[in-house]
Amino acid sequence: MINWRKAARGPVVTYGAIGLCCLVFALGPLSGLNPAHGTGDTLLAAQSAYFERWGVIPSELLSGTPSALVTPLTALFVHGNWLHLLGNMLFLYVFGVMAEERMGRVQFALFSVGGGYLALLAYAVAHAGSDETLVGASGGISAVLGAFLFLFPSARVTSLFPFLLFLPLRFPAWIVLVFWFVLQWLAARSAGPGPGVAYLAHVAGFCVGFLYAWGRYRRTDRVRAPASATQGESQP
Question: Which of 56, 138, 187, 195 lies 20 to 30 Å from 78, alpha-carbon distance?
Fold first, then answer.
């Protein structure tokens, strides 16, 4: 549960992004909560038009038209289903709070949006001929994960691993995040340009975030204390 009164003087960008993504999803045609989008074929048509309007289509993005160049920004706040939304918001909640407090609100906001834009752009360049629509905040969140790895390598996070019967175990952030990155990298190598998870965007976002944090903070002290740093659970 998010304490919104505490959030007013805390990581407002992280909590604000979570609230905005949830609001956008609830009002859109994917949630099933807004009767204005109709039902049946009418709802399916509204969902298709929604993705095409707000999502990234690589072939159109690389055409350079002004409307297409905006879509990597709008796509960050659009999600395909409840599981997609909740998974992304969980990762943002767990890792975004400390990253924002370390970077500051304005820098964190620009960094996460910029990282997300570059992640989606990298995917589009790699799949230049694709007409599949790409949506979701995971590119920007992956950038946050990359920055977190550099800034807080020893912070401990609670993780649920399916092959360990979903037992909640606490590990240093560097183990969890390196493990997550390797999984994304392996998945990206075997993934095609068709429908599915855009693993390459995750890899690109993570690299952007880590390199940014390295370039910006390598001359300053990183937080190495293995204290309970995160507020939630990570599910790699």
Answer: 187
